Amino acid sequence: MRDVLYRQDVLYVAKSFVLSRKLRAVSKMITRIAAIVTYRLVKAVTVAIIMKGFRTDATRT
């Protein structure tokens, strides 16, 4: 009986370990995607501000 319980415990630990590794990989992917998205957003906003600045300068003169 104890042997069966021990085996189940080992299986449980192994499963949780695999799950945690999968979760870690997923979270890494999510953070990478978020970083790319934020980078693109910042880039787009910066470009928009620069273009707006150029436009206002052009209309001012």
What would you note in describing this structure?
With 61 residues, the chain is mostly helical. It has one helix and no strands. The chain is rod-shaped and about 85 Å long. The N and C termini lie far apart (89 Å). The relative contact order is 0.06. The chain crosses the membrane at residues 29-51.
| Mean of all residue-level pLDDT scores | 87
> What profile does the largest beta sheet have?
none
Classify the beta-strand content into a percent band: under 5%
Structural class call reads mainly alpha
What is the string of SSEs from the N terminus onward?
H
Number of strands: 0
Query: Stretches where pLDDT falls below 50 for ≥5 residues?
Result: none
> Percentage of helical residues?
over 70%
- Global outline: rod-shaped
Keywords: Membrane, Transmembrane, Transmembrane helix
Keywords for this structure?
about 60 residues, mainly alpha, 1 helix, about 95% helix
Short description:
Keywords: Membrane, Transmembrane, Transmembrane helix. The chain crosses the membrane at residues 29-51. This protein has one helix spanning 2-60.
Write the layout of secondary structure elements.
Elements: H1 2-60
